[in-house]
Amino acid sequence: MMKDDLFATPQDEVPDFVFDERVVDVFPDMIKRSVPGYESMLAMMGVVARQYAEPQGRVYDLGSSLGASTLAIHRQTRDLDLKHICIDNSAAMIKRSQAILSRHMPQADLELVCDDIQSQEITDASVAVMSFTLQFIEADDRLATIKKVYEGLKPGGALILSEKIAFDDSRQQSLQTDWHHAFKGANGYSELEISQKRTSIENVMVPDTLSQHQSRLTAAGFDESYCWYQAFNFASIVALKH
């Protein structure tokens, strides 16, 4: 696992964040050191997904990056013979995830698609996962994206939506941001790295509040939604279709 030092050198102009080869090379280290409780959340995600995955059913990983969510679910559902469809618009991510996932999963159980998730149809899914994906979609397009997921789920299916979240209360927003930065500092990121990464990502990743997410899920048609995990300003919601 290569160390994430992409922002360790001062930059005169920090470019917007993109999921290119440089990011792919360090992505496992980046997300482990940047997302509080990431590994615990993945393990629990597999447990949650098993409750809704139908035998021989279809599971969609929307914005699949290196396939960590897919692999976490597969580890808890090997006996169900699921079909996993991973969609990501980064060719570098898809190429690398193919190499990673093929070492752990039967090729017949896996389909990888390099495309925008907004362009892909979702059909006959028992589970869909969006792990830190919706926050990179334009705000005006988010409801339509969630509606597409809802319509592609079978009755009894579930969406597991994980996101960095914002807070309505300015004091809580400030505290949560400070705690998150302290977490990153404790994992070896310098103040320069934290600052430059924030500049790089602030124009391409716009978080919503939990209430915004849940209101959108209701508007899309979901019957229930619950926040089942939160660590600082990162949370995961399970939304159910009856």
Walk me through what this model shows.
The structure is a single chain. The protein has 242 residues and is an alpha/beta fold. It is built from eight helices and eight strands, in the order ααβαβαββαβααβαββ. It has one domain (21-240): Vaccinia Virus protein VP39 (Rossmann fold), CATH 3.40.50.150. Strands 1, 2, 3, 4, 5, 6, 7 and 8 form an eight-stranded mixed beta sheet that branches. α2 packs across α3 (68-77) and α5 (142-152) crosses α8. It is globular.
Q: Could you state the order of secondary-structure elements as H and E?
A: HHEHEHEEHEHHEHEE
Question: What is the percent of helical residues?
Answer: 40-55%
Strand content: 15-25%
The rough form would be described as globular
Structural class: alpha/beta
Distance between the termini: 41 Å
User: Can you say what the CATH homologous superfamily is?
Assistant: Vaccinia Virus protein VP39
Q: How many helical elements?
A: 8
Average predicted confidence as pLDDT: 97
Q: Which blocks of ≥5 consecutive residues have pLDDT under 50?
A: none
**CATH fold-level label:** Rossmann fold
Number of domains: 1
